[in-house]
């Protein structure tokens, strides 16, 4: 057994007070995201956990990268035929979470995922490096393969096939827009009395509440 009971940290860097909180959660998210970038200490500040309900009935979480956020929601890109893609097709309710330890902050987002337009997916796909485009074509994400050589051989074949050519985005790869109906902002505070502010979308307006830590 490994005893972790002495792992403790006092959170003292900031506070989340109602008078300083905008009425729109996207404004607060944008501010927090920019501040997390400025503070540093996180290699990929856009890394987020996405939790889905799998076809086996179990929740599953994994890290993906946020690529865009707008007043509509949060966009990431993946293989539609992957485990997460199949889960979303069956149950579009997902949860996103960001943790920025240097800022002592986290954001938890509940919402529905829907595919982005072909235009959005195409534009992002063609903005990726050539190797990343090949990877999207080569990998049938989440499928069982014999060994890594299967992927490496496929990449070598595709490098030859598409040398000097534009790669068409495969139909099984593209973006998801997560439209939130709840966003919670968590700010670490001393003595575990953390600040928690929850926004819930009700009748097209955001309702704001403070939650007990």
From TrEMBL:
Q: Which reaction does it catalyse?
A: pyridoxamine 5'-phosphate + O2 + H2O = pyridoxal 5'-phosphate + H2O2 + NH4(+); pyridoxine 5'-phosphate + O2 = pyridoxal 5'-phosphate + H2O2
Record-annotated Pyridoxine 5'-phosphate oxidase dimerisation C-terminal domain positions: 173-212
| GO function terms (MF aspect) | pyridoxamine phosphate oxidase activity
Note whether Oxidoreductase occurs among the keywords.
Answer: yes
| Sequence ranges assigned to domain Pyridoxamine 5'-phosphate oxidase N-terminal in this UniProt record | 43-159
**UniProt xrefs under SUPFAM superfamilies:** FMN-binding split barrel (SSF50475)
Q: Write down the Gene3D superfamilies for this protein, in alphabetical order.
A: Electron Transport, Fmn-binding Protein, Chain A
Sorted UniProt keywords = Flavoprotein, FMN, Oxidoreductase, Pyridoxine biosynthesis
Write down how the cofactor binds this protein. Answer: Binds 1 FMN per subunit.
Entry annotated with the keyword Oxidoreductase: yes
Q: Which cofactor does it need?
A: FMN
Indicate which residues the UniProt annotation says bind FMN. 62-67, 77-78, 84, 106, 141-142, 186, 196
Q: Where does this protein act, in terms of pathway?
A: Cofactor metabolism; pyridoxal 5'-phosphate salvage; pyridoxal 5'-phosphate from pyridoxine 5'-phosphate: step 1/1; Cofactor metabolism; pyridoxal 5'-phosphate salvage; pyridoxal 5'-phosphate from pyridoxamine 5'-phosphate: step 1/1
Q: Quote the function comment for this protein.
A: Catalyzes the oxidation of either pyridoxine 5'-phosphate (PNP) or pyridoxamine 5'-phosphate (PMP) into pyridoxal 5'-phosphate (PLP).
What family does the entry list? Belongs to the pyridoxamine 5'-phosphate oxidase family.
What PANTHER family has UniProt attached to this entry? PYRIDOXINE-5'-PHOSPHATE OXIDASE, PYRIDOXINE-5-PHOSPHATE OXIDASE
Question: Any idea what this protein is called?
Answer: Pyridoxine/pyridoxamine 5'-phosphate oxidase
Write down the species.
Answer: Flavobacterium gossypii
Its organism's taxonomic lineage begins at:
Bacteria, Pseudomonadati, Bacteroidota, Flavobacteriia, Flavobacteriales
- The UniProt gene name for this protein comes to pdxH
């Amino acid at each position: 057994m490994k005893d972790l009971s002495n792992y403790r940290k006092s959170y003292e860097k900031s506070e989340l007070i109602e008078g300083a909180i905008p009425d729109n959660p996207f404004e607060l998210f944008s501010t927090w995201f920019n501040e997390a970038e400025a503070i540093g200490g996180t290699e990929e500040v856009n890394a987020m956990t996405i939790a889905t309900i799998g076809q086996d009935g179990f929740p599953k979480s994994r890290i993906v990268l946020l690529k865009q956020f707008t007043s509509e929601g949060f966009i990431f890109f993946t293989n539609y035929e992957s485990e997460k893609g199949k889960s979303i097709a069956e149950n579009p309710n997902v949860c996103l979470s960001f943790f920025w330890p240097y800022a002592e902050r986290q954001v938890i987002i509940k919402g529905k995922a829907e595919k982005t337009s072909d235009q959005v997916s195409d534009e992002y796909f063609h903005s990726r490096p050539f190797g990343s485009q090949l990877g999207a074509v080569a990998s049938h994400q989440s499928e069982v393969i014999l060994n890594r050589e299967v992927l490496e051989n496929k990449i070598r074949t595709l490098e030859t096939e598409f040398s000097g050519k534009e790669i068409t985005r495969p139909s099984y790869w593209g973006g998801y827009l997560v439209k939130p109906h709840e966003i919670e902002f968590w700010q670490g505070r001393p003595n575990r009395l953390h600040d928690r502010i929850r926004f819930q979308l009700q009748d097209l307006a955001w309702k704001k509440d403070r939650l007990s830590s």
